[in-house]
Amino acid sequence: MATPDDLAAGLEPGSRLRCDGCGNVTRFDVVATERTRRFHHFDLGGDGAVDEEEVLSRAIESVTCRWCGRDDAILVEPAPSATPDPR
Ligand SMILES: [Zn+2]
């Protein structure tokens, strides 16, 4: 089973998560504690949006497959470079 550090690496570009239980590589629930720096951009009325976000540190608590519900079979593997971003 992947360690929390392994799972954090799986969220970075160039790698991806895989559920060894069912083969899912695209849908996961990730529970994490993150420390971030955000560029909040407000209009004069006070409504805002986040224009930039940098994750300074991240601690993964769990990664659960959305397809089969397993959280004990998640692997990290290199992402196929030719695959377009599925988002
Ligand atoms: Zn699964």
Could you explain the architecture of this structure?
It is elongated and about 50 Å long. The model has no long low-confidence stretch (mean pLDDT 92). It has a two-stranded antiparallel sheet. Strands 2-3 form a two-stranded antiparallel ribbon. Strand 2 (28-42) and strand 3 (48-65) form a beta hairpin. Helices cover 7% and strands 49% of the residues. The protein has one helix at 4-9; strands spanning 15-19, 28-42, 48-65, 74-78. It contains 1 helix and 4 strands. The two termini are 26 Å apart. It has one domain (4-78). The chain is mainly β and 87 residues long. The structure holds zinc ion (ZN). Residues 19, 21-22, 24, 65, 67-68, 70 line the site of zinc ion (ZN). Zinc ion binds next to loops.
Helix share bin: under 10%
- How many domains is the backbone divided into? 1
**H/E element string?**
HEEEE
Strand content: over 45%
Distance between the termini: 26 Å
Continuous helix count? 1
* Hetero ligands: zinc ion
Give me the side-by-side strand order of the main sheet: 1-4
Using brief descriptors, characterize the structure shown.
single chain; about 90 residues; mainly beta; two-stranded antiparallel ribbon; binds zinc ion
Helix and strand arrangement:
Blueprint: H1 4-9, E1 15-19, E2 28-42, E3 48-65, E4 74-78
Antiparallel strand pairs: 1-4, 2-3
The chain binds zinc ion.
Zinc ion (ZN) is lined by residues 19, 21-22, 24, 65, 67-68, 70.
In brief:
Helix content is 7%, strand content 49%. It has one helix at 4-9, and strands spanning 15-19, 28-42, 48-65, 74-78. The strands form two sheets. The protein has a two-stranded antiparallel ribbon. Strands 2-3 form a two-stranded antiparallel ribbon.
